Amino acid sequence: MTALSCRPLRSLKTKINFSTLNVRFYTAELSSKPRDVDVRHLGRAIVDDFAKIRAKYRTPKNPIVLAHGLLGFDELHLVGAALPGIRYWRGIAEAMRKNGIEVITTSVPASSSIEERAAKLSSEIEKKAGGKSVNIIGGLDSRYMISRLKPPNVRVMSLTTIASPHHGSAFADYVIERIGPTRLPRIFRALKALRIETGAFTQLTRRFMEEDFNPKTPNREGVRYLSYGASVDPPIWSAFYGSHGIVERKEGANDGLVSVESSKWGDYKGTLVNVSHLDLINWTNRLRWLVWEMTGNKRNFNAIAFYLDIGDMLAREGL
């Protein structure tokens, strides 16, 4: 992966006055702690099934493609390609390979439109899978590729989505509404001057997903669709406290960004309880877990155990 090229902000002709964006959380909106939400009616509540790594997992017969979501990457090099980069799938791909799974990691533009990301995903899988059938762990890009691009040299057996906003996100609605229609084009131009694509941002709204994307992107016959959601009740100091409150008020239980209801697609396998959006990709601060356990609490989720279990589930289904 090519190292990132960063230009000093002062060298840009386009200047961004972030104080004018006015995208902030008002005390009146977030002063009260979100109510406890019962997730039992939203599918199977998965409390601590993936707290620890088991001794043995089955291995699926087909490769698993790990396709990152919005603002994701395969490997990020901040100071040059010669030094080790930051991996998006922290420890997950390595653990799956150690268990005998053939893993393919892909990289698509971080914030481009779903259409652009899906096209890149298709070419990556075609190049790396070598004609083999694959199982994908991905999201909206994967759905678009399977349903609408239908690449002839990519045969997808299953798609497993994890907290993907299939029905949009109230937080995306909130941000777009706060910015407003008159300022949105100006902000997008400024972001493009920073070499940040903006196609994906408006595509995460609930209106776009329900009125445009979903009606035009049906499930493809012969592909197994599975999904998981997650729910967390973050403390006030959490980075997800504000966004969680906004989504909870509009959609109910959520992981800080995506609601349980929005995560449902195909065969819904259940809701991971007390798991945040970052927990799902093993990016949780390890110090947090250490403090959590030192104070007498039991760790309820291990992302590596979760992904190994997905492989085990696919193997049991003959995929």
Provide a quick synopsis of the model:
The chain is α/β, with parallel strands linked by helices and 319 residues long. The protein has eleven helices and nine strands. Residues 1-35 and 71-85 have low confidence and may be disordered.
Structural notes for this entry:
With 319 residues, the chain is of the alpha/beta class. It is 33% helix and 12% strand. It has helices at 27-30, 92-98, 114-129, 140-149, 170-179, 184-193, 206-216, 241-251, 260-263, 286-294, 303-316, and strands at residues 45-46, 64-66, 75-76, 86-87, 103-105, 134-138, 156-162, 224-231, 267-273. It has a 7-stranded parallel β-sheet with strand order 1-9-8-7-6-2-5, with helices on both faces. Strands 3-4 form a two-stranded antiparallel ribbon. Strand 6, helix 4 and strand 7 form a beta-alpha-beta unit. Helix 3 packs across helix 4 (140-149). The radius of gyration is 20 Å and the shape is globular. The protein starts with 26 loop residues before the first helix and ends with a helix. Mean pLDDT is 80; it is low at 1-35 and 71-85.
Any chance you could write out the topology, listing elements then pairs?
Blueprint: H1 27-30, E1 45-46, E2 64-66, E3 75-76, E4 86-87, H2 92-98, E5 103-105, H3 114-129, E6 134-138, H4 140-149, E7 156-162, H5 170-179, H6 184-193, H7 206-216, E8 224-231, H8 241-251, H9 260-263, E9 267-273, H10 286-294, H11 303-316
